Automatic annotation (TrEMBL), chain A:
NCBIfam families: malonate_madL (TIGR00807). The keyword Transmembrane helix applies. The chain crosses the membrane at residues 7-27, 33-50, 62-81, 93-113. The lineage of its organism: Bacteria, Pseudomonadati, Pseudomonadota, Gammaproteobacteria, Salinisphaerales. GO terms for cellular component: membrane. This is Malonate transporter.
Automatic annotation (TrEMBL), chain B:
Keywords: Membrane, Transmembrane, Transmembrane helix. This is Malonate transporter. Pfam families: MadM. InterPro entries: Mal/Na_symporter_MadM, Mal/Na_symporter_MadM_N. It comes from Salinisphaera japonica YTM-1. GO terms for molecular function: sodium:malonate symporter activity. The chain crosses the membrane at residues 12-32, 44-64, 70-96, 108-130, 164-186, 198-218, 230-249.
């Protein structure tokens, strides 16, 4: 059933957020340290195990792929509810600081991505020109 | 008639948001196909349009939540809020390749620390150059250059005033928004075309919303890798900002 997939997703997120906030408590900060990241690792692990046991059918997977394909629309909604005016009117320090930091960080991405590997990871196949929303399903 | 229609929209906020975003995506996908010949992704245009609408909403209402401050669009705040956003981000992990994750794990950790050290240092230096010499101010602005959450958390912890906190939010917002806009543009130049680079990218940029939106507009398959490292960034930033970073700034600037 579709709800099994949705419920598994919900359970992973809740457990991840709980562990994230406990980790924050241990570190002495009142914040969620990587809860979403923990939840993602948890989901990867659970799906892997359930698929190997053969008890995670197509319907249940549909519950996961539905939410993952809603991801971009949700990000668009998020963009539409940001304080863009505040960012623009924060003055020159904000504008200069933000842009310079982003430029330098962009430049460092290929440098660090190359570290330790020696060779650069293999690029994926080029995406289609118009992205299909269910591509990563 | 119009009043009834607005009533329906107002009392079904989240549903109205689904319909509105669907329509916006349709328009942006058509624009991508016919106006740019498919060179720019529809999702990149949609995210940019969302930011523009946020600006218009901010000007129209004077509020801080963009378009969702207008009553009939209030559902956008729920749809794009952290609860559903986190839910959908975790769902993208469904497509993750475990082998890729293992291969690039160490680089992701290195990126996480470099990704925090760089904005702290550069942000602090720029704050100093603009005449902020007080260690609390320098630290708060530098932390804002990490993310708009690390900034206020750090500022509050070391006793910064609300004007400095607002400034640190603003610098974090500029960062997040420019990551959203520039990622698809520079993706090819910084070789952001594989899961390993996406993991590093998430750790370097750290702004979950910026990374997620930027990668979504570049290649949706990269989102889970970038989002995974980015979600650890803010937590570690909140940990290091008011502690090590503040101590280093204080020992250099004095006070």
């Amino acid at each position: 059933m579709v709800i099994y997939g949705v419920a598994l997703l919900a359970a992973c997120l809740l457990v991840g957020k709980l562990l994230g906030s406990l980790l924050g408590m241990v570190m002495g900060i009142d914040a969620d340290v990587g809860g979403v990241g923990i939840a993602m690792l948890l989901l990867v692990f659970c799906v892997y195990r359930l698929q190997r046991m053969g008890c995670f059918d197509d319907k249940a997977q549909a519950g996961l792929s539905f939410w993952s394909s809603l991801y971009i629309p949700i990000v668009v909604a998020m963009a539409a509810s940001q304080n863009v005016l505040g960012a623009v009117s924060g003055g020159p320090v904000a504008l200069v600081g933000g842009l310079v930091v982003v430029a330098i960080s962009f430049a460092l991405v290929p440098v660090i991505a190359r570290l330790g590997r020696g060779k650069y990871a293999k690029p994926m196949d080029p995406p289609e020109s118009t992205p299909r929303e269910d591509r990563h399903a | 008639m119009l009043e009834r229609f607005l009533d329906v929209l107002n009392s079904n906020g989240l549903i109205a948001a689904f319909a509105f975003i669907g329509l916006l995506m349709l328009v942006c996908n058509l624009a991508a196909r016919y106006l740019t010949g498919g060179r720019i992704h529809g999702s990149a245009i949609a995210i940019a349009a969302g930011l523009l609408l946020s600006y218009i909403g901010g000007v129209a209402t004077g509020g801080t939540d963009g378009l969702s401050d207008i009553a009939m669009f209030s559902g956008l705040g729920i749809m794009g809020g952290s609860m559903l956003r986190d839910f959908a981000i975790v769902a993208t992990a469904f497509g993750v390749d475990v082998a890729e994750l293992k291969k690039a794990g160490m680089n992701g950790v290195i990126a996480l620390f470099a990704g925090l050290a760089v904005p702290f240092t550069v942000g602090a230096a720029i704050a100093y150059a603009f005449g902020y010499t007080d260690p609390v101010a320098v630290t708060t602005i530098g932390a804002g250059a990490a993310t708009y959450i690390v900034g206020p958390v750090t500022g509050t912890a070391i006793g910064a005033g609300s004007d400095l906190i607002a400034l640190s939010i603003a610098i974090g917002l500029v960062k997040s928004i420019s990551v959203m806009i520039f990622t698809p543009i520079v993706a090819k130049r910084i070789q952001l075309n594989n899961p390993s680079a996406a993991l590093v990218f998430g750790g370097m940029m750290g702004t979950t919303s910026g990374v997620a939106a930027g990668l979504a507009a570049t290649d949706a398959r990269l989102v889970p890798y970038g989002a995974m490292t980015a979600t650890f960034y803010t937590g570690f930033g909140c940990l290091l900002g008011p502690s090590i970073f503040y101590l280093v700034v204080r020992s250099i600037v004095g006070g």
